[in-house]
Amino acid sequence: MSIKKFMKKGVALALAVMLLGTAVGCGSSSTTTSEAPASTEQTTQEAKTEEAPAAPVDEKIVIGFSQIGAESGWRTAETESIKKTCEEDPMIELKFSDAQQKQENQIKAIRTFIAQGVDAIALAPVVESGWETVFTEAKDAGIPIILLDRMAAVDESLYTTFIGSDFIEEGRRAAQYVIDTFGPDAEVNIVELQGTVGASAATDRQKGFADAIKDYSGYKIIKSQSGDFTRAKGKEVMEAFLKSDGDKIDVLYAHNDDMALGAVQAIEEYGLQPGKDIIIVGVDGVKDAFQAIADGKYNCTVECNPNLGPQLVQAVKDLKAGKTLEKWIKSDEDVYFGQKAIDALPTRTY
Ligand code: AHR
Predict the structure, then answer these.
(1) Could you identify the atom of ligand 1 that is nearest to the CA of residue 74?
(2) Quick one: which of 276, 237, 294 has its CA closest to 260?
(3) 20 to 30 A from 33, CA-CA: which of 56, 81, 109, 305?
């Protein structure tokens, strides 16, 4: 329930208490209530008891969550984490909206959440730009915006906190694996599958990787194109890379595992061995990537944690309790390759 609705309920409850108090105190002098705290307390308790059955439902904190869509295994895992955490918490009610990869749908969803008077709006923004107007509308309505997993390019005053990963660091970690594999003096031709154009996860993973290899003159990105974070598009773009540069490619760096797994299929169909002829590095840490490492077709996955449900719910509860949140609630993540990945496979949750 929204704070405004909560206040309206509170007024109604106070009126009920007053009326009940008048009835119980019928015949007493007008001073009785103010001079007798014990009986006033008792009257209040009686009134509360009568109102009690509705309270747990009314006190629920309502979160409106605008999700990007279901483009990858990672995204599905994030949705599940948020839905499950909210379902298991009796204090939370979740209003979920799937934007099907469209910013306009996310903007519509935010406006609906504002009209519904939710307590907080969580948003995984499909792209970084274009949020100022709608975030200002939420701010004017007194509803906090919590950015989840991807960033929005807005003034810090327009959102309350960002819960998610350091995508630049993820790009750096992917590059470090490649540098460690080939050595600093090697000549290495890299093809890159970018995520959704304009998404912070794509922009920052590209930047982190490029920054990390820039001091090694033999490391070159010979082709770079978006595969939209999907397996099908990753395969399609990799087919085109192979057609033009099949004999030159040493490394595939993909901004997520799904695109890299699509590319693995394309490489096999082309007649090369993924994981050997072409080194495969992805981001996310989905189970299928761990399996592909175990199968010898994939080399490294940089983890990006999608299990953000508990952090989101905690953040909303902290806000309700009047606490100030950190501007960036960071995820804890690792890099997996070789035996470490094979050992971790049975315990992967997504
Ligand atoms: O924003 C996180 C990215 O979005 C994940 O890496 C990718 O798989 C997803 O679709």
Answers:
(1) 8
(2) 237
(3) 56
Rounded CA gap, 131 and 161, in Å?
Answer: 15
Sheet holding 120-123, edge to edge: 92-98, 61-67, 120-123, 145-148, 161-164, 328-330
Is 167-304 in the same CATH topology as 61-165+307-332?
yes
Q: What is the pTM of this model?
A: 0.84
pLDDT at residue 34 tops 70 = no
pLDDT tens digits, 333-346:
999 999 999 999 99
**How many angstroms does the Cα of residue 74 sit away from the middle of ligand 1?**
6
The dotted CATH code for 61-165+307-332 is 3.40.50.2300
Name the superfamily (CATH) of residues 167-304: Response regulator (3.40.50.2300)
Distance, CA 72 to ligand 1 centroid (Å)?
A: 7
CB 290 within 8 A of CB 334: no
305 pLDDT more than 90: yes
Domain edges within the chain = 61-165+307-332, 167-304
Chain center to CA of 347: 22
Beta carbons within 8 Å of 214's beta carbon, 6+ residues apart: none
Q: What is the DSSP string of 17-76?
A: HHHHHHHHTTTS-TTHHHH-HHHHHHHHHHHHHHHGGGHHHHTPEEEEEEE----SHHHH
